[in-house]
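Protein in question kept in full:
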Amino acid sequence: MSTTGTLDARYPHAPTRDTGWGLLPGEYHSEQNPITGVFVICALVAQILADAARLHGAANVLARDGIWAAAILFPAGFFGSSAGRDATKPNGLIALVYLGGAALAAGVLSLGLGLLTA
């Protein structure tokens, strides 16, 4: 296996490129898969908690769908922004990561406020 730059000690099987913006993943992107799984588990737990809080309207939609949206947007932004052989810094798709953060924050805040007021 050839590498295009340095190896990240945490993931010795994944070649990475040192770009000044941190390390962009090379071929495998293996570090993102567990994070996505955590978001999916949190989204499933949020469904149960939203039922317990008996949320209605926009709060219900945000609490139920915000964490799911983050589970999709974070990895899409991560993978999309580092795509390409000669990528030296993230491209415009990095905005999906910020949208995912906003969706996660809105979902968690809506769920938390709903549980506090239930």
The two ends are 56 Å apart (CA to CA). Strands lie at 16-18, 23-25.
